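Postdoc handover notes: sequence design on the structure in folder B. Input tokens:
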């Protein structure tokens, strides 16, 4: 993806893509509403929600190089945008309420960003739904469902079929592919059927009926592995293979592709980055210069990690392509720690892939039982999660056991409980960079503690439950709203004002 925040940029783009499909790619005016009590009211422009939505409306991918200029392309496409901050009664801080208009129709869609680019559509045309973008969704609008529903149940393949009644009645079909064109034509001959909408999946891995995974908690993992003695990365492969219905080799090679994108981003960052709408310049090149001249404290391994974390964050802040792992705001800690350590230890790429698979499995437990969204759980949910994921990976890369890796994660997450999210200047740069560095070095320390036999005391499942509970207690002004912490210092407001005064043409030239 490109952009400062996965919760804002990647998620909003996916929401926009679903809106585009709902309107059959015909939109003339769009009303976007954000709740004043949520995070988007104060951050939708500066952290990329507008940019992502516009890109989604235009049908782009999250890594499209045109994204920084999406507002210009929306204008060229003749789509009018109206953004309002209104009390929409939103229960979630990342709520998008959209009213989509064309000459032919008006549709309404409400969705939430749940962290790390994940989404859920919770309402369409006044009816409650639950769409995560991981199925082919066919919506059959009808006057009455008495004849249509039995016909669909016997005529098409589906994973789930649900009748919804809101402003209009429609039948939702979740499936592995859209119904064939002949069936759609038959449907349209039924008097009760008004029209059909097809919403394509926006996630790379699809869901399916009766999906089962081998485990979803650490306790379950230990039970599953009791008679197998698999390493943590092998357990990750088993999980992802079952979840995605793909072979073990496909899982491994997909992760290899991700690792290579991360490595390319780091190497790009080390060459220096430029972008007008940012607070910090290229810090990593400064650190590299000091490393080369032997002017830094500590060993090369630690400083290489700091340099790699910085380089990745700088690519993110300059609208380059990064992997949101676990999020865009925390995209430096995990690859910086793993790839930096691998370089220092002289490990081959396969070991990096194994480390990243291990990290991903820890991420599964976190997102299943807590959150990756700073708007919900503070920076503990982003940099804290990245640190815990990296700690497990590093322990495994150093030859530690599964239990040692899980213990390292527990320690790392315990160390970051309560970490707030208060970006300076309403940009995801600082103190984000420092917290990513802290997360990576915390991961190294916790990996070494676990390898040395330190007792983590609290089981990881319980620490993750505590993360969720602590996140719920963090005041909303300290959860990526630009309303508290460092965000409201005099210096931060001066930086924000200076950036907001930059002409749009300046961004394009840089």
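Designed sequence:
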């Amino acid at each position: 993806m490109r952009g400062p925040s996965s919760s804002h940029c990647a998620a909003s783009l996916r929401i926009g893509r679903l809106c585009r499909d709902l309107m059959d790619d015909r939109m003339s005016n769009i009303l976007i509403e954000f709740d004043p009590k949520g995070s988007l009211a104060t951050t939708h422009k500066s952290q990329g929600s507008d940019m992502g939505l516009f890109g989604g409306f235009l049908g782009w991918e999250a890594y499209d190089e045109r994204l920084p200029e999406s507002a210009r392309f929306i204008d060229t496409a003749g789509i009018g945008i109206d953004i309002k901050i209104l009390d929409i009664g939103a229960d979630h801080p990342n709520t998008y309420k959209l009213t989509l208009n064309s000459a032919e129709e008006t549709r309404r869609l409400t969705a939430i960003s749940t962290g790390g680019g994940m989404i859920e559509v919770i309402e369409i045309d006044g009816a409650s739904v639950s769409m995560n973008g991981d199925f082919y969704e066919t919506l059959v609008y009808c006057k009455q469902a008495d004849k249509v529903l039995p016909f669909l149940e016997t005529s098409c393949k589906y994973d789930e079929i649900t009748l919804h009644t809101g402003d209009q009645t429609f039948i939702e079909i979740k499936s592995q592919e859209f119904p064939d064109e002949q069936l759609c034509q038959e449907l349209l001959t039924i008097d009760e059927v008004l029209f059909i909408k097809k919403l394509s999946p926006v996630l790379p891995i699809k869901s399916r009926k009766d999906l089962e995974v081998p485990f979803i908690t650490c306790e379950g993992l230990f039970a599953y592995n009791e008679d197998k003695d698999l390493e943590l990365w092998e357990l990750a492969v088993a999980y992802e293979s079952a979840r995605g219905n793909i072979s073990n080799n496909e899982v491994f090679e997909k992760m290899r592709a991700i690792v290579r994108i991360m490595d390319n981003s780091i190497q790009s960052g080390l060459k220096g980055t430029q972008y007008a709408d940012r607070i910090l310049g290229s810090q990593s090149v400064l650190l590299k210069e000091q490393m080369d001249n032997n002017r830094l404290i500590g060993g090369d391994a630690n400083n290489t990690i700091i340099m790699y974390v910085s380089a990745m964050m700088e690519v993110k802040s300059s609208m380059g392509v990064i992997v949101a792992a676990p999020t865009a705001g925390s995209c430096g800690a995990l690859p910086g720690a793993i790839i930096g350590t691998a370089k220092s230890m002289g490990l081959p790429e396969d070991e990096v892939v194994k480390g990243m698979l291990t990290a991903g499995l820890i991420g599964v437990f976190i997102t299943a039982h807590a959150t990756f969204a700073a708007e919900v759980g503070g920076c503990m949910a982003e940099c804290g999660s990245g640190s815990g994921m990296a700690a497990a990976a590093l322990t495994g890369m150093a030859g530690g056991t599964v239990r040692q890796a899980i213990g390292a994660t527990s320690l790392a997450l315990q160390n970051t409980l309560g970490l707030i999210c208060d970006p300076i200047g309403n940009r995801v740069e600082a103190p984000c960079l420092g917290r990513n560095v802290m997360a990576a070095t915390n991961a190294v320390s916790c990996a070494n503690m676990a390898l040395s036999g330190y007792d983590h005391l609290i089981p990881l499942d319980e620490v993750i439950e505590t993360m969720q509970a602590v996140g719920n207690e963090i005041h909303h002004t300290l959860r990526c709203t630009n309303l508290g912490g460092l965000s409201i210092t005099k210096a931060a407001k001066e930086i924000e004002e200076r950036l907001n005064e930059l002409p749009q043409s300046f961004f394009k030239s840089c």
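Context for whoever picks this up: The first helix runs from residue 6 to 22. Don't rerun without checking with the PI first.
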